[in-house]
Write a structure and sequence with these properties.
84 residues; Thioredoxin-like_sf; mainly alpha; extended; DSBA-like_thioredoxin_dom; 2 strands; Thioredoxin domain-containing protein
Length: 84
């Protein structure tokens, strides 16, 4: 379960407004920790690649040094062109 925020309010998703998200399901999954093991495994895997924050990008199992959009699009374009 999520602890209360510093201001004393309990975190909730019910007043959020991103389209296409089932907020009741999201909150239920969050409270029941439905995906906790998946998240922990992803965290462990990211750490093994040297990821220590976000955003980080990988293209074909290569961690990009730069997290800028230009670095990501450049790496994708290079792969699409058959480069390594």
């Amino acid at each position: 379960m999520n602890p209360p925020a510093k201001d004393g309010h309990k975190p909730t998703c019910s007043n959020s407004s991103i389209g296409g998200i089932n907020y009741e399901r999201f909150e239920q999954d969050l409270k029941s920790q439905t995906y906790m093991l998946d998240v922990k495994e992803d965290f462990k895997t990211a750490g093994s690649y040297g990821v220590n924050g976000t955003p980080k990008f990988m293209v074909n199992d290569v961690l990009l040094k730069d997290s800028l959009e230009e670095a990501l699009t450049g790496a994708i374009d290079k792969q699409l062109a058959g480069g390594n």
